[in-house]
Design a protein that fits this description.
Layout (H helix, E strand, L loop, with lengths): L5 E5 L6 H14 L4 E5 L5 H12 L7 H25 L3 E5 L2 H11 L4 H12 L6 E6 L2 H9 L12 H17 L4 E5 L4 H18 L5
Parallel strand pairs: 1-3, 1-4, 2-3, 4-5
């Protein structure tokens, strides 16, 4: 039985998932876990090129189908090159976004067929699924305001308000459908208060699911 855990962070734009996932990585490392930290898109060299196409390069505008397949191509390489080898070695993997984002953004946000997305995603993940997914929930106005305070908004952040509302609702719907593995954390004004709930949720999960070699 594998000893490590696969923990993913997700949520609407500006929810703070990157900040909190790094903080959790640091705490788990201090507590003796062998942690690999990664992200999607962009966790591999190939993924970095795909990330630029999807989020940065304004001259390249993939259609919905192409966008979905680019995200899934990034994930296929990510699983094969980083995630599965780490889990096979008993490491704990923390990933900033994973397939929950694809269902929320391309499914609910862009209106693509969920069953079709699931079929493609099952093929590329090849049996690798998160043990626990933390969705950081934040009101769209607040999240986009936070995201806009960074140096420059990426192409996803620039999409219409209605798109982001659908994405947020998608995350909440997914959490209702999979309550044992998908946990919603309400983002608080106090970053430390938000992180306290995240850490408690993860450490409680680990305590209930400890694995031996």
């Amino acid at each position: 039985m594998k000893k490590g855990f696969f923990i993913t962070f997700d949520g609407p734009e500006g929810s703070g998932k990157s900040t909190h996932s790094v903080r959790l990585k640091d705490d788990l490392t201090l507590d003796g876990y062998d942690v690999i930290y990664t992200r999607e898109p962009g966790g591999t060299l190939l993924g970095q090129k795909i990330r630029d196409v999807l989020l940065k390069n304004e001259d390249i505008k993939p259609g919905k189908q192409a966008e979905l397949l680019l995200f899934e191509a990034d994930r296929a390489q990510h699983v094969e090159e980083i995630i599965k080898p780490a889990l096979d070695k008993g490491k704990t993997v923390i990933c900033d976004r994973f397939n929950t984002a694809t269902f929320a953004y391309q499914g609910y946000g862009a209106g693509m067929d969920i069953n079709m997305i699931r079929s493609i995603d099952d093929f590329v993940t090849n049996g690798i699924f998160p043990d626990i997914t933390l969705i950081l929930d934040i009101e769209v106005n607040m999240g986009l305001s936070r995201a806009g305070k960074r140096c420059s908004a990426d192409k996803m952040e620039k999409r219409p308000y209605e798109f982001h509302e659908r994405v947020r609702q998608g995350y909440l719907d997914i959490a209702k459908k999979f309550p044992k593995k998908v946990k919603v954390i309400q983002v608080k004004n106090d970053i430390d208060e938000t992180y306290k709930f995240i850490k408690n949720e993860v450490y409680d999960f680990i305590g209930r699911n400890k694995r031996s070699g």
